[in-house]
């Protein structure tokens, strides 16, 4: 992770909006996210939470407004590897094993210091499934295989769309622990969830979607 100027938010949105067929998906938004912060993105079904995260991840073009990263206009080339998106579609190759999927991800963005695929797969609860094709895993195990990227890759900002979906109680607690450790270490995260987020690392920032 590179150093951030003391006062500059990690991420800042100014008048950000998105249009489909010329209709705004959500009203223009302003928000800031600082290093060490967790933000919960809240809103009803269809209010634009996934759209917002996909836009922040660079998967959708910014409609109107501005995105700033570490105090300067966000340049996609400069943030590649620093922003990690985990969406409803998990981005796993079904014929590859969890280990092979991690290898592909790490070949693009490198690994956190002191981590490797075997250790993060054990940590995420996939010991014994490291070399199983992903298509043979359960929904929760697939989710864990995708979440393993959070432990392996050196991203600063995590964009997590429904990270608790399909997880059991232990998996949910694990996600909360990963979020706490990440924010404690100066990372940041934006999370959508229709369930209760029992995050113990202080009061999260709340970003409310309005149509
Ligand atoms: N690929 C698409 N093509 C056209 N419209 C879309 C597409 N994806 C989403 N939308 C529309 O954009 C709006 C916002 O959708 P989005 O998925 O961002 O909402 P959400 O808040 O994440 O919903 P949910 O809580 O149901 O996951 C919805 O009205 C939806 O119908």
From TrEMBL:
PROSITE patterns: ABC_TRANSPORTER_1, ABC_TRANSPORTER_2. Keywords: ATP-binding, Cytochrome c-type biogenesis, Membrane, Nucleotide-binding, Translocase, Transport. Residues 11-209 form the ABC transporter domain. One of its GO terms (molecular function) is ATP hydrolysis activity. One of its GO terms (biological process) is cytochrome complex assembly. This is Heme ABC transporter ATP-binding protein CcmA.
